[in-house]
Specification:
CATH class: Mainly Alpha
Distance between the termini: 21 Å
Number of helices: 7
Number of strands: 0
Structural class: mainly alpha
CATH topology: Four Helix Bundle (Hemerythrin (Met), subunit A)
C-alpha cells in the first residue's frame, strides 16, 4: 500500500464467517474430547484405549485442519502469495500426518483385538478420502509450490485442484459422520434409541461437523471473497510469463 493510504480490509461479512467457523471448529474438537473422555475412557496409545486416538485424530486432521487450510487464501488476503501457498501446504501436510496417526491407531487396535479391517462403508469412504487427499497434496505441491510447472499447465489444473479440495473436505466430514454412527451402534446399540446422554452428545458432534463444513464451504464459494492478486504479484507474473511463454498472464487467484 502507498504511504498514507488506509490499510486494506476484508470484504464485508468475511471476518464474521471465518470467526464462526473457528468457533465451530474448536467446539467440535472439545466435544470430541468430551465424548471420548466422559464415555469412552479417554485416549492412550499402548492400551485398549488406543482406538480412541482414531476419531480424535481424524476430526482434528481431516476436518478442522483441512478446513482451515482451505480458508488460508480467504483469511490471508494481503500477505505475499508465496507465504500463503506455503502456509496452505503446511496445514494440509500437518492434517495428513495427524490423520495417518489416526489410521495407524485403528489398524493396531483392530489387530490387538482380532477385529477385521476395511469391511465397513465408513472404512471405505475414510480410506478413499485419505488416499485422495494425499494425492491432492502431492499434486498441489508439484504444480503450485515447487518451480517447474508453466502458467498454462497451472491454469489448466487449478480448477480441478479447487474442485477436488472442496470435494475431499466434504467426503472427510461424511466419513466422520459414518464413523460416529458406526461407533454408537457398536457401543450403545441397546440404549441409543432411548436418547441416552452419550448418544445425544455424539449426535451433537455430528451436527457440529455439518455446521463447520457448511460455513467453510460457504466462505469458499463466495466469488467476492476470493483473494485477488496484489499489484506486485501481477507485475511479477506478467514479467515471468512473458519471459517463459511469450504471453500475458490470465486467470485469477484461489
Amino acid at each position: 500500500a502507498m504511504d498514507g493510504a488506509p490499510p486494506p480490509t476484508s470484504p464485508t461479512g468475511l471476518s464474521a464467517y471465518v470467526a464462526v467457523s473457528q468457533l465451530l471448529g474448536l467446539t467440535l474438537l472439545a466435544t470430541t474430547g468430551a465424548w471420548l473422555g466422559r464415555y469412552r475412557g479417554g485416549v492412550a496409545w499402548s492400551s485398549p484405549l488406543q482406538f480412541n486416538a482414531h476419531p480424535l485424530c481424524m476430526v482434528l486432521g481431516m476436518v478442522f485442519l483441512q478446513g482451515d487450510a482451505l480458508l488460508v487464501y480467504r483469511v490471508f488476503r494481503h500477505e505475499a502469495k508465496r507465504s500463503t501457498k506455503v502456509l496452505h501446504a503446511l496445514l494440509h501436510g500437518l492434517a495428513l500426518v495427524i490423520a495417518l496417526v489416526g489410521i495407524i491407531a485403528v489398524f493396531e487396535s483392530h489387530r490387538s483385538k482380532g477385529i477385521r479391517d476395511m469391511y465397513s462403508l465408513h472404512s471405505w469412504c475414510g480410506m478413499a478420502a485419505f488416499v485422495l487427499y494425499l494425492l491432492q497434496w502431492l499434486l498441489g505441491c508439484g504444480f503450485f509450490l515447487f518451480p517447474g510447472a508453466s502458467f498454462s499447465v497451472r491454469g489448466q489444473y487449478k480448477p480441478q485442484h479447487i474442485f477436488f479440495g472442496i470435494t475431499l473436505f466434504i467426503l472427510s466430514i461424511t466419513s466422520c459422520l459414518l464413523g460416529i454412527t458406526e461407533m454408537l451402534l457398536f457401543k450403545i446399540s441397546d440404549s441409543y434409541s432411548h436418547f441416552v446422554p452419550e448418544g445425544i452428545l455424539a449426535n451433537t458432534l455430528g451436527m457440529l461437523l455439518v455446521a463447520f463444513g457448511l460455513v467453510v464451504c460457504y466462505v469458499l464459494t463466495q466469488e467476492e471473497w476470493k483473494r485477488q492478486p496484489l499489484a506486485e504479484e501481477m507485475a511479477l507474473s506478467m514479467d515471468f510469463k512473458t519471459l517463459t511463454e511469450g504471453e500475458s498472464p490470465s486467470g485469477g487467484s484461489q
